[in-house]
Amino acid sequence: MRRFRKTKIVATIGPASNTPEMTRALFDAGVDVFRINMSHTSHAMLADMHGQLRALSKEAGRPIGILVDLQGPKIRLGKLPGGKRVLSEGETIKLVLGETSDDLTEVPIPHPEIFQAIKQKHALLIDDGRIRLRLLRKADTFATAMVEVGGEIKDRKGVNMPDTLLPLSAMTPKDRGDLDAALSLGVDWIALSFVQRPEDVAELKKIVSGRAGVLAKIEKPKAMASLEGVLELADALMVARGDLGVEMPLEAVPGLQKRIIRAARKAGKPVVVATQMLESMIGSPMPTRAEVSDVAQAVFEGADAVMLSAESASGAYPIEAVQMMDRIATSVENDPLYQSIIEAQRGTPERTTPDAIMAAVHEITGTIEAKAIITWTKSGLTALRAARERSRAPIIAPTPDLATARRLCLVWGTHSVTTEDIRDYDDMVRRAAQIARQEGFAGAGDRIVVTAGVPLGTTGATNMLRVAFVEDER
Q1: Nearest-CA neighbor of 321 among 285, 269, 375?
Q2: Is the whole-model pTM more than 0.85?
Q3: Any catalytic annotation for residue 275?
C-alpha cells in the first residue's frame, strides 16, 4: 500500500480508537505512525496496543511506526482549602511549599524545586496560562506574588514557569519505568516531553542506546534558546504547540514553528507539527477553515509529519479527522506553488560525498522526471539525506532492517520496504527497478535514480548514483 502524499500522518491511540478494527480503519485512512501517550496509558495497555499495531503491520504487509510519548515532569498546584479559590487582579498572594494548606489565604505548591529556582519578577502561569502571577519575593518554603491576570483556580491545576530554568530532569521515575516498558517491547520512537536543555536529550539517548529514535518535544522557551544543541543530539523534533503557546506569546508561536521546521530540515532530521491541528473535529465531522489553513501551512513549510491528538484518541470522528488530514496534505502537495516554496527553503549541501550525491540526485531527478529515488539503506541515514532535499520524486528505501523501515515511517516522502540485503552492483540495480515496479511507483520504460554506498553494506557511505530504466516484468 503506497501513499500518494509525502507528508506523514501521526495519530494518537485512545479510547475512541483502541481496537483492531479502528486501528485498521485509521491505517487505511492514512496513518503512518501511531502515538501512544503515556500520560493516560498503563504498561498493560501499552503492551496490548503494541501487539495490536504489530499484528496490523503484519496483516497489511507494510511497516507501521509506533511512537511512545513520555509524560515528563508535571508541575501542579496542591489541594486548596475548599478545592478552589478566586484570585483578583492586583491581589498579593502567598505561595507555600506543601500538598495542602488550612490557611484560606495560601496557595500550596508541592514542588520544592520551584522555590529553589524561581527569581524575583519571574512569571507563574496557572491552568494553561489563564491565571498569571508575578513573583515579588521568596524564601525556601514560601513566596509572595502579585496577580496580574485573575480568575478561579482549582486543585491540581498545572503550573508553567516560562522564565525559570527548573532543576528538573526531563524524566521522572514514572517516565523511566514507562521507558523501560516501551524499549522492552521494541517501539520505534520515544518522545521526550518538557525538554529544557541538550543534556535532557543526552540523558535519554544514553538510556535508549540506539534501540529507538529519540524525538525532542519543543514546548518551552528554554528549549528554543538551546534549539541548536537540542537538535544536534535528538533524532527528530516535535513542535509541541500546546505548552509552547502557554509559556510564550501566542502570536509568537507561528514564527517559532517556522524556525523549528527550517532548523530540522537543514539538519536533515524529521520534524512533526502537533497540537490542536483539527481540534474542532473532536466533536464535529468537519474542521474549521482556519484549522485547514493551519495544517496546510505546516505542509507548505515542508514538515515531515502532522499529528492528531484528541481528534483520534477521544474524538467522535477519528477516521474522518485522518481522512481530512490526508486530503489537505495531498491537495497542498499538488498545488502549483508547493514545489517552488519547498525549493526556496533548500539548504546548501555540506561538503561531504553523501551530501553531494544527494544534491545531484535531486537535480537529476527533476531534470529527467524520474519516477522514484531508490536509496538502499541499513541505518536509514541515506534515506534521511534524500528526504532533506525534498525532491519531486518519492523516495523508496529498501532495507534489510525492519527497525529501520519502521522508523522511516516518520520521514517525509519515504516509502520503506524490507528486503534481503543486496549482493552486488547488478543485483542492486535490478532489484531497485523491480521494487519500484512492484510497489506501484514506476512502470516499464520509466526512469529511476538509484543510490547506495560502495563497498555495499557500508553504513552512511553513500557514494554512488545510477540512473536506470524499469523493464517489463518477465
Answers
A1: 285
A2: yes
A3: yes
